[in-house]
TrEMBL record:
This is Palmitoyltransferase. Its EC number is 2.3.1.225. It is an enzyme of class 2 (transferase). The lineage of its organism: Eukaryota, Metazoa, Spiralia, Lophotrochozoa, Mollusca. The DHHC domain is required for palmitoyltransferase activity. GO terms for molecular function: protein-cysteine S-palmitoyltransferase activity. It is a multi-pass membrane protein. The chain crosses the membrane at residues 20-42, 62-80, 142-160, 204-224. Residues 96-238 form the Palmitoyltransferase DHHC domain.
Amino acid sequence: MGIINVLFSDKVTRRVKYQAFMNIVCAVYMWTMTLLVTHVSFFHIVPDCYEADNRVVIHRLAIWYIFTGTLGNYITCVFTKTDAKTSERLEKQIKSHGRYCLACEMQVPRRSHHCYLCESCIVKRDHHCFFMGVCIGRENHLYFIFFTLFMGIGTFYGLLLNAKYMHRLYGTQFHGPQTFVKIFFSLFASLLTGQLPSYRYMGLFILMYVSLAGTMISFGFFAWQMLVVLNGQTTYEAKFGVTRYSKGSYLGNLREVFNSRSLVSLLLPMWDLATNTNYCRINSQSE
Protein backbone atom coordinates (compact mmCIF):
# COMPACT_ATOMS: atom_id res chain seq x y z
CA MET A 1 0.00 0.00 0.00
CA GLY A 2 1.42 3.39 -1.01
CA ILE A 3 0.59 5.16 2.28
CA ILE A 4 2.46 2.60 4.40
CA ASN A 5 5.48 2.76 2.09
CA VAL A 6 5.54 6.55 2.30
CA LEU A 7 5.20 6.51 6.09
CA PHE A 8 8.40 4.47 6.52
CA SER A 9 10.31 5.85 3.54
CA ASP A 10 13.54 7.82 3.95
CA LYS A 11 13.09 9.55 0.59
CA VAL A 12 10.14 11.79 1.46
CA THR A 13 9.83 14.96 3.51
CA ARG A 14 8.36 15.17 7.01
CA ARG A 15 5.35 16.95 5.60
CA VAL A 16 4.55 14.05 3.27
CA LYS A 17 5.05 11.57 6.14
CA TYR A 18 2.70 13.63 8.29
CA GLN A 19 0.09 13.57 5.53
CA ALA A 20 0.49 9.78 5.24
CA PHE A 21 0.01 9.44 9.00
CA MET A 22 -3.12 11.60 8.87
CA ASN A 23 -4.47 9.30 6.14
CA ILE A 24 -4.37 6.43 8.61
CA VAL A 25 -5.85 8.52 11.44
CA CYS A 26 -8.75 9.74 9.28
CA ALA A 27 -9.55 6.26 7.98
CA VAL A 28 -9.46 4.70 11.48
CA TYR A 29 -11.62 7.49 12.92
CA MET A 30 -14.18 7.26 10.12
CA TRP A 31 -14.64 3.51 10.35
CA THR A 32 -14.60 3.44 14.15
CA MET A 33 -17.43 5.97 14.25
CA THR A 34 -19.28 4.30 11.36
CA LEU A 35 -19.18 0.91 13.08
CA LEU A 36 -20.27 2.43 16.40
CA VAL A 37 -23.25 4.26 14.91
CA THR A 38 -24.24 1.17 12.92
CA HIS A 39 -23.93 -1.15 15.94
CA VAL A 40 -25.87 1.10 18.31
CA SER A 41 -28.61 1.74 15.74
CA PHE A 42 -28.94 -1.92 14.71
CA PHE A 43 -28.74 -3.63 18.11
CA HIS A 44 -30.05 -1.01 20.55
CA ILE A 45 -31.99 1.92 19.10
CA VAL A 46 -34.19 0.07 16.60
CA PRO A 47 -35.21 -2.79 18.98
CA ASP A 48 -35.89 -0.39 21.87
CA CYS A 49 -37.87 2.12 19.80
CA TYR A 50 -40.00 -0.36 17.88
CA GLU A 51 -39.92 -3.39 20.25
CA ALA A 52 -41.90 -6.24 18.64
CA ASP A 53 -43.12 -4.08 15.78
CA ASN A 54 -42.55 -5.40 12.24
CA ARG A 55 -40.73 -2.16 11.52
CA VAL A 56 -37.73 -3.56 13.37
CA VAL A 57 -37.06 -5.86 10.42
CA ILE A 58 -37.54 -3.06 7.90
CA HIS A 59 -35.18 -0.70 9.72
CA ARG A 60 -32.57 -3.41 10.20
CA LEU A 61 -32.67 -4.32 6.51
CA ALA A 62 -32.30 -0.64 5.61
CA ILE A 63 -29.33 -0.26 7.97
CA TRP A 64 -27.70 -3.40 6.59
CA TYR A 65 -28.11 -2.32 2.97
CA ILE A 66 -26.80 1.20 3.59
CA PHE A 67 -23.81 -0.16 5.51
CA THR A 68 -23.11 -2.70 2.76
CA GLY A 69 -23.33 0.05 0.14
CA THR A 70 -20.94 2.25 2.10
CA LEU A 71 -18.42 -0.52 2.77
CA GLY A 72 -18.72 -2.01 -0.72
CA ASN A 73 -18.05 1.25 -2.54
CA TYR A 74 -15.24 2.09 -0.12
CA ILE A 75 -13.46 -1.23 -0.78
CA THR A 76 -14.04 -1.00 -4.54
CA CYS A 77 -12.74 2.57 -4.60
CA VAL A 78 -9.61 1.68 -2.61
CA PHE A 79 -8.69 -1.45 -4.57
CA THR A 80 -9.42 -0.10 -8.06
CA LYS A 81 -6.14 0.80 -9.75
CA THR A 82 -6.03 4.43 -10.84
CA ASP A 83 -2.40 5.01 -11.78
CA ALA A 84 -1.13 5.67 -15.29
CA LYS A 85 1.03 2.53 -15.35
CA THR A 86 -1.92 0.16 -15.02
CA SER A 87 -3.92 2.29 -17.47
CA GLU A 88 -1.19 2.32 -20.12
CA ARG A 89 -2.99 -0.07 -22.48
CA LEU A 90 -6.26 1.80 -22.11
CA GLU A 91 -4.67 5.15 -22.86
CA LYS A 92 -2.68 3.96 -25.88
CA GLN A 93 -4.60 6.15 -28.32
CA ILE A 94 -3.96 9.37 -26.41
CA LYS A 95 -0.38 8.90 -25.24
CA SER A 96 0.87 11.20 -27.96
CA HIS A 97 -1.17 14.04 -26.45
CA GLY A 98 0.14 13.48 -22.93
CA ARG A 99 3.21 14.72 -21.12
CA TYR A 100 6.28 13.30 -19.44
CA CYS A 101 6.32 12.77 -15.65
CA LEU A 102 9.82 13.10 -14.18
CA ALA A 103 8.86 11.31 -10.95
CA CYS A 104 7.32 8.31 -12.76
CA GLU A 105 9.84 8.50 -15.63
CA MET A 106 7.17 7.79 -18.21
CA GLN A 107 4.73 9.42 -20.60
CA VAL A 108 1.36 9.94 -18.95
CA PRO A 109 -2.08 10.83 -20.38
CA ARG A 110 -3.67 14.24 -20.31
CA ARG A 111 -5.32 15.25 -17.04
CA SER A 112 -2.90 12.99 -15.13
CA HIS A 113 -1.14 14.39 -12.08
CA HIS A 114 1.49 12.92 -9.78
CA CYS A 115 0.63 12.12 -6.17
CA TYR A 116 3.54 11.75 -3.75
CA LEU A 117 1.38 9.87 -1.27
CA CYS A 118 0.27 7.29 -3.86
CA GLU A 119 3.74 7.41 -5.47
CA SER A 120 2.33 7.44 -8.99
CA CYS A 121 0.59 9.52 -11.65
CA ILE A 122 -3.19 9.26 -11.41
CA VAL A 123 -5.26 9.31 -14.61
CA LYS A 124 -7.79 12.18 -14.48
CA ARG A 125 -6.82 12.90 -10.89
CA ASP A 126 -9.51 14.62 -8.84
CA HIS A 127 -7.93 14.69 -5.37
CA HIS A 128 -6.28 12.52 -2.74
CA CYS A 129 -8.86 11.31 -0.23
CA PHE A 130 -7.49 11.17 3.32
CA PHE A 131 -10.38 9.00 4.50
CA MET A 132 -9.57 6.36 1.88
CA GLY A 133 -5.82 6.74 1.63
CA VAL A 134 -5.92 6.71 -2.17
CA CYS A 135 -6.34 9.18 -5.00
CA ILE A 136 -9.67 9.60 -6.73
CA GLY A 137 -9.18 9.34 -10.49
CA ARG A 138 -10.94 8.21 -13.63
CA GLU A 139 -11.09 4.54 -12.68
CA ASN A 140 -12.65 4.93 -9.21
CA HIS A 141 -14.48 8.27 -9.45
CA LEU A 142 -17.89 6.59 -9.72
CA TYR A 143 -17.33 4.51 -6.59
CA PHE A 144 -16.20 7.54 -4.60
CA ILE A 145 -19.37 9.43 -5.53
CA PHE A 146 -21.52 6.45 -4.55
CA PHE A 147 -19.56 6.12 -1.31
CA THR A 148 -20.28 9.73 -0.33
CA LEU A 149 -23.96 9.20 -1.20
CA PHE A 150 -24.30 6.04 0.92
CA MET A 151 -22.31 7.56 3.78
CA GLY A 152 -24.47 10.70 3.71
CA ILE A 153 -27.69 8.68 3.74
CA GLY A 154 -26.34 6.39 6.47
CA THR A 155 -25.19 9.13 8.82
CA PHE A 156 -28.43 11.08 8.32
CA TYR A 157 -30.45 7.91 9.02
CA GLY A 158 -28.37 7.31 12.15
CA LEU A 159 -28.98 10.91 13.21
CA LEU A 160 -32.76 10.50 12.87
CA LEU A 161 -32.75 7.24 14.84
CA ASN A 162 -30.57 8.81 17.52
CA ALA A 163 -32.92 11.78 17.83
CA LYS A 164 -35.91 9.44 18.17
CA TYR A 165 -34.11 7.43 20.85
CA MET A 166 -33.15 10.52 22.87
CA HIS A 167 -36.75 11.73 22.69
CA ARG A 168 -37.95 8.35 23.92
CA LEU A 169 -35.47 8.12 26.81
CA TYR A 170 -35.05 11.75 27.88
CA GLY A 171 -37.95 13.62 26.27
CA THR A 172 -35.57 15.67 24.12
CA GLN A 173 -37.55 17.81 21.69
CA PHE A 174 -36.14 18.50 18.23
CA HIS A 175 -37.47 21.64 16.54
CA GLY A 176 -34.91 22.21 13.82
CA PRO A 177 -31.17 22.82 13.49
CA GLN A 178 -31.12 25.18 16.48
CA THR A 179 -31.89 22.18 18.71
CA PHE A 180 -28.35 20.86 18.25
CA VAL A 181 -26.92 24.16 19.53
CA LYS A 182 -29.35 24.17 22.46
CA ILE A 183 -28.50 20.60 23.48
CA PHE A 184 -24.78 21.32 23.32
CA PHE A 185 -24.93 24.39 25.57
CA SER A 186 -27.39 22.69 27.94
CA LEU A 187 -24.93 19.85 28.47
CA PHE A 188 -22.05 22.31 28.83
CA ALA A 189 -23.99 24.24 31.49
CA SER A 190 -24.79 21.00 33.33
CA LEU A 191 -21.12 20.06 33.42
CA LEU A 192 -20.18 23.48 34.83
CA THR A 193 -22.70 23.08 37.67
CA GLY A 194 -21.50 19.56 38.47
CA GLN A 195 -24.60 17.78 37.16
CA LEU A 196 -23.03 14.90 35.30
CA PRO A 197 -25.27 13.10 32.77
CA SER A 198 -25.41 9.32 32.53
CA TYR A 199 -22.93 7.38 30.40
CA ARG A 200 -25.76 6.43 28.05
CA TYR A 201 -26.71 10.05 27.51
CA MET A 202 -23.10 11.05 26.89
CA GLY A 203 -22.68 8.19 24.41
CA LEU A 204 -25.81 9.15 22.49
CA PHE A 205 -24.79 12.82 22.64
CA ILE A 206 -21.40 12.05 21.04
CA LEU A 207 -22.87 9.75 18.39
CA MET A 208 -25.50 12.36 17.53
CA TYR A 209 -22.90 15.03 16.77
CA VAL A 210 -20.67 12.53 14.98
CA SER A 211 -23.65 11.64 12.77
CA LEU A 212 -24.45 15.32 12.21
CA ALA A 213 -20.87 16.08 11.16
CA GLY A 214 -20.77 12.97 8.97
CA THR A 215 -24.00 13.98 7.24
CA MET A 216 -22.78 17.48 6.46
CA ILE A 217 -19.34 16.36 5.26
CA SER A 218 -20.62 13.43 3.16
CA PHE A 219 -23.38 15.35 1.41
CA GLY A 220 -20.99 18.27 1.00
CA PHE A 221 -18.53 16.03 -0.84
CA PHE A 222 -21.36 14.49 -2.87
CA ALA A 223 -22.72 17.89 -3.93
CA TRP A 224 -19.25 19.13 -4.89
CA GLN A 225 -18.46 15.99 -6.90
CA MET A 226 -21.74 16.24 -8.80
CA LEU A 227 -21.01 19.91 -9.54
CA VAL A 228 -17.55 19.26 -11.01
CA VAL A 229 -18.84 16.26 -12.98
CA LEU A 230 -21.64 18.38 -14.48
CA ASN A 231 -19.04 20.97 -15.48
CA GLY A 232 -16.75 18.35 -17.04
CA GLN A 233 -13.99 19.06 -14.53
CA THR A 234 -12.04 17.49 -11.73
CA THR A 235 -11.46 19.20 -8.39
CA TYR A 236 -7.93 20.07 -9.53
CA GLU A 237 -9.24 21.61 -12.76
CA ALA A 238 -12.00 23.51 -10.96
CA LYS A 239 -9.38 25.00 -8.64
CA PHE A 240 -7.45 26.45 -11.58
CA GLY A 241 -10.45 27.24 -13.80
CA VAL A 242 -9.68 24.60 -16.46
CA THR A 243 -12.77 24.03 -18.64
CA ARG A 244 -11.39 22.74 -21.95
CA TYR A 245 -12.35 19.12 -21.27
CA SER A 246 -16.07 19.84 -20.99
CA LYS A 247 -18.29 18.07 -23.54
CA GLY A 248 -20.39 21.20 -23.95
CA SER A 249 -23.48 19.93 -22.13
CA TYR A 250 -24.37 18.67 -18.67
CA LEU A 251 -25.59 15.36 -20.10
CA GLY A 252 -22.38 14.84 -22.05
CA ASN A 253 -20.30 15.57 -18.96
CA LEU A 254 -22.38 13.20 -16.83
CA ARG A 255 -21.73 10.41 -19.32
CA GLU A 256 -18.02 10.80 -18.63
CA VAL A 257 -18.68 9.15 -15.26
CA PHE A 258 -22.21 7.70 -15.32
CA ASN A 259 -24.14 5.52 -17.76
CA SER A 260 -26.94 2.94 -17.63
CA ARG A 261 -24.53 0.34 -16.25
CA SER A 262 -23.75 2.56 -13.28
CA LEU A 263 -27.06 1.45 -11.77
CA VAL A 264 -25.51 -1.99 -11.23
CA SER A 265 -22.74 -0.41 -9.15
CA LEU A 266 -25.33 1.48 -7.12
CA LEU A 267 -27.64 -1.46 -6.42
CA LEU A 268 -24.96 -4.15 -6.05
CA PRO A 269 -21.95 -2.75 -4.16
CA MET A 270 -18.66 -4.57 -4.90
CA TRP A 271 -20.16 -6.22 -8.00
CA ASP A 272 -17.61 -4.44 -10.19
CA LEU A 273 -14.72 -5.56 -8.00
CA ALA A 274 -15.96 -9.15 -7.84
CA THR A 275 -16.46 -9.38 -11.62
CA ASN A 276 -13.38 -7.27 -12.50
CA THR A 277 -15.62 -4.83 -14.38
CA ASN A 278 -15.00 -1.10 -14.28
CA TYR A 279 -17.76 1.01 -15.82
CA CYS A 280 -15.67 4.19 -15.58
CA ARG A 281 -13.17 2.43 -17.83
CA ILE A 282 -15.89 1.25 -20.23
CA ASN A 283 -17.09 4.84 -20.62
CA SER A 284 -13.60 5.99 -21.55
CA GLN A 285 -13.01 3.17 -24.03
CA SER A 286 -16.27 3.84 -25.84
CA GLU A 287 -15.35 7.44 -26.66
